[in-house]
Amino acid sequence: HGIGSATAGGCNVTDNICRSNTQSGIEMYDWFNSVIARNVFASNGTYGLNLIGPNSTNNVFVQNTFDSNATYQIRMATNGGEPSGDTFLKNNILPSPSNPDSAVYNNTVNKFDFSRNYWNNTDSAGIRKKIGIGADSIVYSPFRLGLVDTPAGGDSPAPKAPDSVAIAVSPSDT
């Protein structure tokens, strides 16, 4: 594994690159209340993320890139219990060319919030096909239509202010 440990809480894992490991980019067994942000998990031998264990709860995954990992990009599975309450927002989830329909695997009975992620697909039916076991328990809509800016300091410039909006003050407001 690129990053891995058992039973950790309140951790911040940020700005790492976990690439070409023989197993997972990150394996989290019984992690809770942690933030995983702005990381790249790419071209690993199994999963980008392997989230397992009965106490893996209330973790937030934001602005990460899961790209071309061999099997699934994100796997949530039972191992003496089930992860729950974890949230995935503003991530790029890009299955490998050899497994294009293998983005997320959820072998638990729990629902997970995967809204506002980029799936390299703008069709909800196409996104659903990328979710393996447990597709009914993955909430993926609304989803992003373009890549999420994930590198540190990589924020895109703000758009120009609209030129068709004006503020009017009435005499009673003064």
Describe the structure.
There is one protein chain. With about 170 residues, the protein is mainly β. Helix content is about 5%, strand content about 30%. The protein has 1 helix and 15 strands; from the N terminus they run E-E-E-E-E-E-E-E-E-E-E-E-E-E-H-E. Strands 1-4-7-10-13 form a 5-stranded parallel sheet, with no helix packed on it. Helix 1 (about 125-130) links the parallel strand 14 and strand 15 (about 140). It is globular and about 65 Å long. The model is unreliable at about 155-160 (pLDDT under 50).
Number of strands: 15
Spatially, the strands of the biggest sheet line up as 1-4-7-10-13
- From the N-terminal CA to the C-terminal CA, the straight-line distance is 63 Å
Rg calc? 18 Å
- The shape is globular
Fraction of helical residues:
under 10%
Structural class: mainly beta
Major beta-sheet overview: 5 strands, parallel
Low-confidence regions: 156-162
Q: Strand share of the residues? A: 25-35%
User: What does the average pLDDT come to?
Assistant: 87
Describe the oligomeric state of these chains in a short phrase: single chain
Helix count equals: 1
- One letter per element, helices H and strands E, the order comes to EEEEEEEEEEEEEEHE
Please specify the SSE layout and strand pairing:
Blueprint: E1 3-9, E2 12-14, E3 17-19, E4 26-32, E5 35-37, E6 40-42, E7 49-52, E8 60-62, E9 65-67, E10 74-77, E11 87-89, E12 92-94, E13 104-107, E14 112-113, H1 124-129, E15 138-139
Parallel strand pairs: 1-4, 2-5, 3-6, 4-7, 5-8, 6-9, 7-10, 8-11, 9-12, 10-13, 14-15
